[in-house]
Specification:
By secondary structure, this protein is of the alpha+beta class. The protein has three domains: about 160 residues, no CATH class; about 50 residues, Roll (SH3 type barrels), CATH 2.30.30.60; about 90 residues, Alpha-Beta Plaits. Helices cover about 60% and strands about 15% of the residues. The strands form two sheets. The protein has a five-stranded antiparallel β-sheet with strand order 4-3-2-1-5. Helix 2 runs antiparallel to helix 3, helix 3 runs antiparallel to helix 4 and helix 8 packs across helix 9. The longest helix is centred in the N-terminal third of the chain and has 45 residues. The radius of gyration is 37 Å and the shape is elongated.
């Protein structure tokens, strides 16, 4: 009997030594990984490169230590309750790692897209979801049935979603608009209904557009996301503009084209907002009721500049036509009377 006890004690001592060695090497490996992650993160910061190594350094350290402790405790069957405790701690380390990773990714994005601050709200929603999942996993590890809890949580989430349908729709539409970056603060946009102006602010619920008449129009994000939008600042602010003109049927069209192009070039060179290097175009396109109709194509530096350029072009063209004897005919009708 004494011999059997000694053998059991020796076996337990061996298992204890193995457990201590496993724990020691896990601590050593965790420390090496921690310092490697920190060194890589510092190097990336110096080179101004993106890196999540700094955010994951501590979670990786804790994960490796916990894994080593779990393997060590498995060598000691009498410590069953410690195994359960390590499992629960492992869940919380996973939560901690997930939150750190999400925070790092949000900071990445915010560094390049400083106007998008609603990612903070998205991060909170995702973090809350992670906490709920972690709590459910811990309850299940403790041996409790989570089916009813999950069902109740699902019903509650459905009720909340239905109650906040409009609010959530606008919120996630705002996230989509800003992450896609099809429109940005400062852009000049025009909606399919004809509303146009500068994007002044994109909030969690709505987008504010300042019109040229200095009126502030507030549009729900959900409605904006479904609209057809023309962005006059993307991909470039420069744009072509067209001006419709007409001359009488008796005009020399070669002369009309030459005079019109001369005026267009002068206006683009002289007027602020015109693109000096652009070669204007004249295209005759229709036999109208009173005039031969044509279109002049000019180029301006931004959508706002078109108004002054058109204004000056029409004035200059009217003077040039009067000087050259080119007639812009009034609308007329010929009436024939039969006796």
């Amino acid at each position: 009997m004494l011999t059997g006890s000694l053998e059991a004690w020796a076996l337990a001592a061996d298992e204890l030594v193995v457990a201590v060695l496993i724990l020691f090497f896990s601590l050593l490996l965790a420390s090496l990984l921690y310092f490697a992650f920190k060194k890589y993160a510092a190097k990336a910061a110096e080179e101004r490169r993106k890196s999540v190594a700094g955010a994951l350094a501590l979670p990786v350290f804790l994960s490796v230590v916990l894994a080593g402790a779990y393997l060590a405790v498995l060598r000691l069957p009498q410590l069953v309750i410690v195994v359960m405790l390590l499992k629960v701690l492992g869940v919380f380390v996973g939560v901690f790692a997930s939150i750190r990773l999400i925070s790092a990714l949000v900071e990445w994005y915010a560094r390049e897209h400083v106007t998008y601050k609603r990612l903070v709200g998205v991060r909170r929603i995702v973090n809350a979801f992670i906490y709920v999942i972690a709590i459910i996993i811990v309850i299940r590890l403790l041996g409790y049935d989570v089916t009813a809890l999950i069902a109740g949580f699902g019903v509650g989430a459905l009720v909340v979603a239905l109650a906040l349908q409009s609010t959530l729709s606008n919120y996630f539409a705002g996230i989509y608009i800003t992450m896609e970056r099809s429109i940005k603060i400062g852009d000049y946009v025009e909606l399919e209904g004809g509303l146009s102006g500068f994007v002044e602010e994109i909030t969690w619920r709505s987008t504010k557009i300042r019109t040229l008449l200095d009126n502030l129009v507030i549009i729900p994000n959900a409605k904006l996301a479904e609209s057809i939008i023309t962005n006059y600042y993307d991909p470039t602010r420069e744009m072509n503009i067209r001006i419709d003109c007409g001359v009488s049927y008796g005009s020399d069209l070669e002369k009309v084209e030459r005079v019109t192009l001369d005026v267009a070039r002068r206006v683009l060179q002289r007027v602020s907002g015109g693109v000096e290097t652009f070669e204007p175009l004249v295209r005759f396109n229709n036999f109208g009721d009173s005039n031969i109709e044509f279109t002049v194509i000019l180029r301006v530096k931004s959508v706002i500049d078109q108004y002054l350029v058109k204004h000056e072009f029409i004035k200059e063209l009217t003077k040039a036509y009067a000087k050259e004897g080119i007639e812009i005919a009034y609308p007329c009708r010929n009436i024939f009377l039969r006796g």
